[in-house]
Amino acid sequence: MGKKPTTSNSKQDPIINLDAVSLDDLEQDLVVDLNSISLADSKNSIASRLRAIRVNAPDLQFIARFVLTIMGIVYFATNSSSPLILPISIIIGLCLMFLVCYLYLYHQVKRHGFSTRATISANQLDISFAHFAWFFDPANPSPLLLLVVIAAVGNGIQHGFNVFRSILQSIIIAAPLVFALRVMTIGFQPISLIYLFLTGFLLIYTYFLIQRIDAIQTETEHRTTDLELNNFKLKQLGRALQNSEARYRNIFDNSSVAMILIEDNMRISLVNAKFEELTQFSRSELYNRKRLSDLIDKDDLERIRRFHARRKKMGGTTPTEYECKLVDKFHNTKHVIIRFNITHWHERIMATIEDITSRKQAKAALQRSNKKLRQTLSMLTQSEKGYRNLFENTGTATILVGKNLRILKANTKFLELTEFSKKEIAVKKRLSEFIERKNLYRIRRFQAKQKIKGLPLPTEYECLLIDKQKKMKHVVMKIYTPAGQETSIVSFFDITKRKQAEAELRQAHEKLRIVAVMDELTQVANRRQFNEKLSSEWSRLKREGLPLALIMCDVDFFKSYNDNYGHQNGDRCLRSIADTVKKAVKRSIDVVARYGGEEFAVIMPNTDIHGALNVAEAARVAIEQLRIPHKMSPISPYITLSLGVSSMIPAKSLAPDALIKDADNALYEAKRLGRNRTVVGKCNADENFHPQSPWPNKIQKAYPNL
After folding, report:
1. Nearest partner of 261 among 374, 168, 341, 178, judged by Cα
2. Which member of 384, 510, 520, 598 is catalytic?
3. At what angle do helices 145-159 and 190-254 cross, to 10 degrees?
4. Whole-number mean pLDDT of the chain?
5. What are 150-204's pLDDT values in tens digits?
6. Is 598 a catalytic residue?
7. Extents of the domains making up the chain
8. What is the Cα–Cα distance from 612 to 367, expressed in whole angstroms?
9. Contact between 645 and 679 (Cβ < 8 Å)
10. Could you tell me how far CA 136 lies from the centroid of its own chain?
11. Which ranges of 255-345 does DSSP label H, i.e. alpha helix?
12. What is this structure's pTM?
């Protein structure tokens, strides 16, 4: 630890002999791991922001092309020789056409910005103009061959190696063709070939030079990116160290345990509030005035010294924890445990003092502490293995999904659910491949709507999962994406059996509903459904001001039929009558119900007395035509019906019972008149039936007064 401390009292040995303390067992944790520092947002990382940037200057490019075009025009205009093949006026006109094309491209770039199409068009236009000028130049060798070099090198430097390579490919095709045409036109001169060779050499040299420049620039950009990343990490390290110092200082000052810093001679140099509270001394009374040994009980101090002497004699190391009594400012004795934290690179020692005044409480607390420590040690030992197996042994089908919905990892439950193997899934399958297509589109449309509305996306979806055998399974998919992570944890809960149970439950409910509203014997509406339908139609037609008709039917002498033919035949007879009445009622909105034992009723919305009477008589005739034998009937050898018909427009002062009562009275009147007939209720007695009305003759004969 450096120099040995000097003490004012040479007879008094220090309690802690620093030279005898062994530091082999002290763990030295790394405060900050530089490699563990990562950027907050990988999408905006420095590496991605330090890409090579080429400056595009449309104004400067246009000026250069404008100047070259004007130079070509001036060259042809001032040249004493005429251009090849074409007259000078046409050549200048073509040059002006190139200038107009440059103006158009300049306008497009200024309006829409640089694009691949505009860049390629400009490059091809430059190369075309250069070959055009070289072809029509009458001089041999042609100085305008330099325009080809200028156009190629200028665009290559401006747009990079890839563009220069494509330009060079165009030149390799066009230059020999132009040269051959010039040879055919003005003849061959060796100096022209040398001139062409030097130009080609210059282009090839520029090719490798630009390639090397791009490579150096790319390498420089990578190095700059690495430097920026390291600089960012160092800044993070500095902030982490500052936060660490502030955190540990805050821990020291606000610790619930008394803590002190002592020099080599046991002189107190720094204390926290808990130590002041424990000893009742103020900081001014302690700093550089008191030693820790001054506060320890003399007997315990002597015991500790004897213990040190034996340890030295036996060659052992000095312990870092002592249990003793502490004497405060007012000479109160407190039982404490003093623990020394010795750091080999620091000249001061930090000690924590725990008050254990109550021996029993201290012993119990120590036992609990030891137990917790053992449990913690066991948990820490198993923690790594547990977290490693947590994903695999979880009770739900779980996968780890990366970018583009690619499945990075799947547990056994997911493999059982989909019937795939790990090799078939890991990094080869996407999550979207397991979701049924319609469900996938539904989820995507829903997420798009949520994003447009600015609402958060849900983390739970119910959908269909497709396994290896192309079977559909109902699942609940839960998605969890940890903050700052590029992977998501997706869990699947198989609810196929629950869905099947729900479907069966719905079917059972539907059956119960049918049972609740249908008569079990005749399969027409029961009395409860009749009451509900009549009440709802009465309320609706009362609002609309339209008529509601009711037909009450009763089987004539049915009791004697049951007594003679038996109840089973009676049930079959009632089913036949119900089916026949339903067939006679044509509209789907009309309701046929079993009103009583052998009594039926027909509710006919929006129907006047004429329509209801027509339907009632049709049903009566149809029952007669069934020719169900009934020997006990005094009016007919077959089963017959008596019917009462009524129709009225619902009014506020009336209730549905008025309609039932009127139709029922008409039914009783039909029975009184001899049965097997249809009678109109009293509320419709003043209705006029004209002879030309479409009703059957039987109806008109039965009701001559109508």
Report:
1. 341
2. 598
3. 10
4. 77
5. 777 777 777 777 777 777 777 777 777 777 777 777 767 777 677 677 777 677 7
6. yes
7. 58-227, 255-357, 394-500, 518-702
8. 95
9. yes
10. 65
11. 273-279, 283-286, 298-314
12. 0.35
Q: Which pLDDT score, from 0 to 100, does residue 573 have?
A: 92
Taking the C-alpha atoms of residue 229 and residue 462, their distance in angstroms, rounded to an integer, is: 43
Q: Provide DSSP, 151-189.
A: HHHHHHHHH-HHHHHHHHHHHHHHHHHHHHHHHHHH---
Joined tokens for residue 170:
């165009």
Rounded Cα distance between 494 and 472, Å, is 11
Sheet containing 460-466, strands listed edge to edge, beginning at the edge strand earlier in sequence: 407-410, 397-401, 488-494, 472-480, 460-466
Residue with tokens 């497009």: 108
CATH number of the domain located at residue range(s) 394-500 in this protein:
3.30.450.20
pLDDT, tens only, 280-322? 888 888 887 788 888 888 888 888 888 878 877 777 666 778 8
Average pLDDT of the residues in 521-535: 89
Q: Residue 262: CB partners within 8 Å, gap ≥ 6?
A: 268, 269, 291, 292, 348, 349, 351
Choices 3.30.70.270, 3.20.20.140, 3.40.50.2300, 3.80.30.20: CATH for 518-702: 3.30.70.270
pLDDT of residue 388: 61
Q: Do domains 255-357 and 394-500 have the same CATH topology?
A: yes
Contact between residue 619 and residue 584 where contact means Cβ atoms under 8 Å apart: yes
Please give the Cα distance from 419 to 413 (Å, whole number): 10
The per-residue pLDDT for 548 is 93
Q: How many CB atoms lie within 10 A of CB 614?
A: 19
Residue 21's CB is within 10 A of a number of other CB atoms, namely 17
Retrieve residue 583's tokens: 């067939």
The full length of the chain comes to 706
Cα separation, 526 vs 674, whole angstroms: 28
Q: Between β-strands 333-341 and 321-327, what pairing exists: parallel, antiparallel or unpaired?
A: antiparallel
Residue (of 135, 117, 137) closest to 125 by Cα position: 117
Question: Distance between CA 625 and CA 636 in Å, rounded?
Answer: 12
Which CATH class, in words, describes the domain spanning 255-357? alpha beta
Asked if 272 contacts 259 with a C-beta cutoff of 8 angstroms, the reply is yes
Structural element, H or E, at residue 663 = helix 656-672
